[in-house]
User: Fold this.
Amino acid sequence: MKCPICGREFEPESAESSLPFCSDRCKTIDLGRWLDEKYPFLSDKDEEDEEIAEGWVTDEDH
Ligand SMILES: [Zn+2]
Assistant:
């Protein structure tokens, strides 16, 4: 069986809990990719909030 993440050939019998991936690591990577596609705004939003927060603090000081 071929892992869809890393492309490595592996024996499914030795990694039943991670199928169709070769390991928990590849399973986690796939989950992360899926979340990025479904919620692409989450990581960007945090950065924007920080910039806005700093701007507000500066305005209040003046
Ligand atoms: Zn893999």
Summary: Residues 12-61 form one domain. The two ends are 64 Å apart (CA to CA). Residues 3, 5-6, 8, 21-23, 26 surround zinc ion (CB under 6 Å).
